[in-house]
Amino acid sequence: MKKISLGLIGAGEVAQLIHLPILKQLQDHYAVTALYDPSPSVLEQVGSNWNIPHRYTTLDDLLSDPTIDAIMVLSPDQFHGDHARSALRAQKHVFLEKPACLTLTDLKSLIEVERESNQVTMVGYMRCYAPAFTQAQSLLKHMGETRYVRVRDLICEGPWFFNSWGHVATPDGDIAVDLIDSGRAKRLADMKAVCGEDASPAILKAYEVLTGLGIHSLSALRVLIGSPQKVISAHIAQGGTQINALLDYGQFITSYECLIDDVVRFDATIEVISAREKLDIYYDTPYIRNLPGRTVFQTSTETDNTVQNFGPFYKDPFRVELEHFHDAIVAGTPVSTPLQDAWADLDLCQQIMTAARISTK
């Protein structure tokens, strides 16, 4: 099996807790040879912990390394577009963590650069690779016409889970102040470009939640049943950490519910209902390794009722997606979550925010 030389942009929480442990399991697929992070202390600690031989203090140095085949963009969301474009121009394949970008303008530019390159680009929508999800895709073919869909993201944030078992290296006050300031300014500018210059803190927080958490579910929803015709209504509460939206699919309605609070649970589900069938996909927190997903399929007739449980599936979705990325590079397998498809997901997030702004006036 061909081993791909991999460079990581960003050594933060998602790199340390999720991707690096999976990449260690996939040592026959990947060699993590290089790392860039703007914090020298994080760069050194993470590089040492994971035996990454080349640790770069500038992005240009990382991308100039001719031994690197592919780049994982794990940097803060506002830098995704810039970092992915730079990697593609350096003739590296790109695995891009979600969201692909924060604005459609940035995403359009990235798509144009990708089209000019001959590199593989894949968005890290890991829920679409979960065995429970692919099982649901197969079962959906046996269902009647969809009548209703409900999507839920009712969660406790990741730190509650991983603080009890792991440690995340954080910057020791050693990131350049101008980089911190410019990053914050860019993030705020991107969010205001979507939400409006006069957007309230709650509206801005809601967009952060949608692009950080909600886009996982919205992308899975699109892959499963397609994109909605329009957003009927949306409302935000709890300072932007609660979002409810109604999506119009023509013949049926989909409801999206999101709440981030301090009740320790991870209720991430997709429910599809037809006249006589119900399909449920259950996800668990990604911050504890190999927690299972499962799929439940219910069929009812006038005289019978059957419930089938599939799973629990213990294969980690992050592992599945990285195996898929490897196959796309080595064997030319079509990417299941291409960059172009991310446009519909980001556009839907923006439509939800437009509807939410109307409801708050």
What does this entry look like structurally?
This protein is an alpha/beta fold and 361 residues long. It has 2 domains: 4-124, NAD(P)-binding Rossmann-like Domain (Rossmann fold, 3-Layer(aba) Sandwich); 128-316 and 334-360, Dihydrodipicolinate Reductase, domain 2, CATH 3.30.360.10. The chain is 40% helix and 26% strand. The chain has helices at residues 13-25, 40-49, 59-63, 80-89, 104-116, 131-140, 158-162, 177-195, 201-225, 317-330, 342-360, and strands at residues 4-9, 30-36, 54-56, 70-73, 93-97, 121-124, 148-156, 230-237, 242-248, 253-261, 266-273, 277-283, 293-300, 305-313. The strands form 2 sheets. Strands 8-9-10-7-11-12-13-14 form an 8-stranded mixed β-sheet. Strands 3-2-1-4-5-6 form a 6-stranded parallel β-sheet, sandwiched between helices. Strand 2, helix 2 (40-49) and strand 3 (54-56) form a beta-alpha-beta unit. The protein is globular. The N and C termini lie far apart (58 Å). The mean pLDDT is 96.
Helix content: 25-40%
Rg, Å, rounded: 21 Å
Strand count: 14
Question: What is the H-and-E element order?
Answer: EHEHEHEHEHEHEHHHEEEEEEEHH
- How far apart are the termini? 58 Å
- Tell me the overall shape: globular
Largest sheet: 8 strands, mixed
Classify the secondary structure makeup into a structural class: alpha/beta
- Portion of residues in beta strands equals 25-35%
- CATH architecture label of the largest domain: 2-Layer Sandwich
Number of domains: 2
User: In the CATH hierarchy, what is the superfamily of the largest domain?
Assistant: Dihydrodipicolinate Reductase, domain 2
Nearest-integer average pLDDT: 96
